[in-house]
Design a protein that fits this description.
This is DNA starvation/stationary phase protection protein Dps. By secondary structure, the chain is mainly α. The chain is 67% helix and 2% strand. It is elongated and about 55 Å long.
Protein backbone atom coordinates (compact mmCIF):
# COMPACT_ATOMS: atom_id res chain seq x y z
CA UNK A 1 0.00 0.00 0.00
CA UNK A 2 1.09 3.51 -0.58
CA UNK A 3 -0.49 6.80 -1.50
CA UNK A 4 -4.20 7.23 -0.67
CA UNK A 5 -4.56 3.55 0.31
CA UNK A 6 -3.84 2.47 -3.29
CA UNK A 7 -1.28 -0.15 -4.19
CA UNK A 8 1.93 1.40 -5.46
CA UNK A 9 2.73 -0.08 -8.88
CA UNK A 10 5.97 -0.10 -10.82
CA UNK A 11 5.66 1.29 -14.35
CA UNK A 12 4.53 -1.37 -16.82
CA UNK A 13 3.34 -1.64 -20.39
CA UNK A 14 0.95 -4.39 -19.30
CA UNK A 15 -2.29 -3.75 -21.22
CA UNK A 16 -4.53 -3.96 -18.13
CA UNK A 17 -5.62 -0.67 -16.61
CA UNK A 18 -3.81 0.55 -13.51
CA UNK A 19 -6.99 0.02 -11.46
CA UNK A 20 -7.30 -3.62 -12.52
CA UNK A 21 -3.58 -4.22 -12.00
CA UNK A 22 -3.78 -2.68 -8.51
CA UNK A 23 -6.78 -4.82 -7.57
CA UNK A 24 -5.10 -7.96 -8.87
CA UNK A 25 -1.85 -7.18 -7.03
CA UNK A 26 -3.83 -6.93 -3.77
CA UNK A 27 -5.64 -10.20 -4.51
CA UNK A 28 -2.42 -11.97 -5.49
CA UNK A 29 -0.63 -10.67 -2.39
CA UNK A 30 -3.21 -12.33 -0.08
CA UNK A 31 -2.76 -15.58 -1.95
CA UNK A 32 1.02 -15.28 -1.93
CA UNK A 33 0.94 -15.04 1.86
CA UNK A 34 -1.44 -18.00 2.04
CA UNK A 35 0.62 -20.13 -0.36
CA UNK A 36 3.76 -19.49 1.69
CA UNK A 37 1.81 -20.47 4.82
CA UNK A 38 0.49 -23.65 3.17
CA UNK A 39 3.95 -24.54 1.93
CA UNK A 40 5.39 -24.38 5.41
CA UNK A 41 2.43 -26.20 6.92
CA UNK A 42 3.52 -29.08 4.67
CA UNK A 43 7.09 -28.76 5.95
CA UNK A 44 5.86 -28.68 9.55
CA UNK A 45 4.12 -32.00 8.92
CA UNK A 46 7.15 -33.40 7.03
CA UNK A 47 9.54 -32.58 9.87
CA UNK A 48 7.35 -33.84 12.70
CA UNK A 49 5.33 -36.81 11.45
CA UNK A 50 5.54 -40.13 13.31
CA UNK A 51 3.63 -43.39 13.07
CA UNK A 52 2.52 -46.03 10.63
CA UNK A 53 3.49 -45.50 6.99
CA UNK A 54 6.04 -42.92 8.15
CA UNK A 55 8.22 -42.89 5.06
CA UNK A 56 5.27 -42.66 2.66
CA UNK A 57 3.64 -39.68 4.38
CA UNK A 58 7.02 -38.08 5.13
CA UNK A 59 7.74 -38.12 1.38
CA UNK A 60 4.18 -37.02 0.51
CA UNK A 61 4.46 -33.98 2.77
CA UNK A 62 7.76 -33.02 1.14
CA UNK A 63 6.21 -33.39 -2.34
CA UNK A 64 3.28 -31.21 -1.25
CA UNK A 65 5.76 -28.61 0.02
CA UNK A 66 7.52 -28.58 -3.35
CA UNK A 67 4.19 -28.28 -5.17
CA UNK A 68 3.03 -25.38 -3.03
CA UNK A 69 6.42 -23.68 -3.44
CA UNK A 70 5.62 -23.74 -7.15
CA UNK A 71 2.37 -21.88 -6.42
CA UNK A 72 4.32 -19.33 -4.39
CA UNK A 73 6.56 -18.65 -7.38
CA UNK A 74 3.68 -18.49 -9.89
CA UNK A 75 1.74 -16.04 -7.73
CA UNK A 76 4.77 -13.85 -6.98
CA UNK A 77 5.79 -13.68 -10.62
CA UNK A 78 2.27 -12.74 -11.78
CA UNK A 79 2.07 -10.13 -9.03
CA UNK A 80 5.35 -8.54 -10.09
CA UNK A 81 4.48 -8.83 -13.80
CA UNK A 82 1.48 -6.62 -13.05
CA UNK A 83 3.81 -4.02 -11.51
CA UNK A 84 3.43 -5.03 -7.87
CA UNK A 85 6.06 -5.66 -5.23
CA UNK A 86 5.86 -9.20 -3.84
CA UNK A 87 5.86 -9.41 -0.05
CA UNK A 88 7.24 -12.91 0.33
CA UNK A 89 8.85 -12.98 3.75
CA UNK A 90 7.65 -15.25 6.52
CA UNK A 91 6.64 -12.15 8.51
CA UNK A 92 4.56 -10.82 5.60
CA UNK A 93 2.99 -14.24 5.15
CA UNK A 94 2.07 -14.40 8.82
CA UNK A 95 0.36 -11.01 8.61
CA UNK A 96 -1.48 -11.70 5.35
CA UNK A 97 -2.43 -15.38 5.27
CA UNK A 98 -6.06 -16.36 4.84
CA UNK A 99 -5.45 -19.80 6.37
CA UNK A 100 -6.19 -21.12 9.84
CA UNK A 101 -2.97 -21.53 11.85
CA UNK A 102 -1.45 -25.01 11.78
CA UNK A 103 -1.14 -26.67 15.20
CA UNK A 104 2.46 -27.13 16.30
CA UNK A 105 1.80 -30.14 18.52
CA UNK A 106 0.66 -32.68 15.90
CA UNK A 107 2.73 -35.87 15.71
CA UNK A 108 0.69 -38.81 14.38
CA UNK A 109 0.48 -39.21 10.62
CA UNK A 110 -3.34 -39.33 10.63
CA UNK A 111 -3.53 -36.01 12.48
CA UNK A 112 -1.18 -34.35 9.99
CA UNK A 113 -3.03 -35.86 7.02
CA UNK A 114 -6.40 -34.62 8.25
CA UNK A 115 -5.11 -31.18 9.22
CA UNK A 116 -3.35 -30.68 5.89
CA UNK A 117 -6.52 -31.82 4.12
CA UNK A 118 -8.35 -29.05 5.99
CA UNK A 119 -5.72 -26.51 4.91
CA UNK A 120 -5.72 -27.60 1.26
CA UNK A 121 -9.52 -27.47 1.25
CA UNK A 122 -9.51 -24.02 2.85
CA UNK A 123 -6.94 -22.74 0.34
CA UNK A 124 -8.94 -24.27 -2.49
CA UNK A 125 -12.04 -22.35 -1.41
CA UNK A 126 -10.10 -19.08 -1.35
CA UNK A 127 -8.62 -19.84 -4.78
CA UNK A 128 -12.07 -20.52 -6.26
CA UNK A 129 -13.20 -17.10 -5.04
CA UNK A 130 -10.04 -15.58 -6.52
CA UNK A 131 -10.89 -17.10 -9.92
CA UNK A 132 -14.29 -15.40 -9.81
CA UNK A 133 -12.85 -12.10 -8.58
CA UNK A 134 -10.19 -12.09 -11.31
CA UNK A 135 -12.75 -12.84 -14.01
CA UNK A 136 -15.11 -10.13 -12.74
CA UNK A 137 -12.22 -7.63 -12.66
CA UNK A 138 -11.40 -8.37 -16.30
CA UNK A 139 -8.10 -10.20 -15.83
CA UNK A 140 -8.43 -13.60 -17.54
CA UNK A 141 -4.73 -14.41 -17.15
CA UNK A 142 -4.82 -14.10 -13.36
CA UNK A 143 -8.07 -16.10 -13.35
CA UNK A 144 -6.30 -18.80 -15.38
CA UNK A 145 -3.37 -18.84 -12.96
CA UNK A 146 -5.76 -19.35 -10.03
CA UNK A 147 -7.60 -22.05 -11.99
CA UNK A 148 -4.30 -23.89 -12.53
CA UNK A 149 -3.48 -23.64 -8.82
CA UNK A 150 -7.00 -24.78 -7.90
CA UNK A 151 -6.64 -27.94 -9.98
CA UNK A 152 -3.39 -28.76 -8.20
CA UNK A 153 -4.91 -28.11 -4.78
CA UNK A 154 -7.82 -30.43 -5.61
CA UNK A 155 -5.44 -33.20 -6.62
CA UNK A 156 -3.41 -32.75 -3.42
CA UNK A 157 -6.58 -32.84 -1.36
CA UNK A 158 -7.45 -36.13 -3.05
CA UNK A 159 -4.02 -37.55 -2.14
CA UNK A 160 -4.42 -36.47 1.48
CA UNK A 161 -8.01 -37.59 1.94
CA UNK A 162 -7.39 -40.98 0.34
CA UNK A 163 -5.46 -41.98 3.46
CA UNK A 164 -8.56 -41.89 5.62
CA UNK A 165 -11.53 -42.34 3.25
CA UNK A 166 -12.26 -45.99 3.80
CA UNK A 167 -15.51 -47.75 2.91
CA UNK A 168 -17.37 -49.23 5.85
CA UNK A 169 -18.99 -52.67 5.79
CA UNK A 170 -22.15 -51.35 4.08
CA UNK A 171 -20.09 -49.87 1.24
CA UNK A 172 -20.65 -46.27 2.36
CA UNK A 173 -17.66 -43.97 2.45
CA UNK A 174 -16.75 -42.85 5.94
CA UNK A 175 -14.23 -40.67 7.64
Amino acid sequence: MAKNGKVQLHPSKNPLSENIRGAMVELLQKHLASAIDLSYQCKQAHWNVKGMNFIAVHKLFDELHEQTEGYVDLIAERLTALGGQAHGTVQASNEGTLLTPYPLDLVHSEGHLKRLADSFSEMGGHVEKAVEESEEAGDPLTADLFTQIGRGLDESLYFLESHFQLPDVSGQTGR
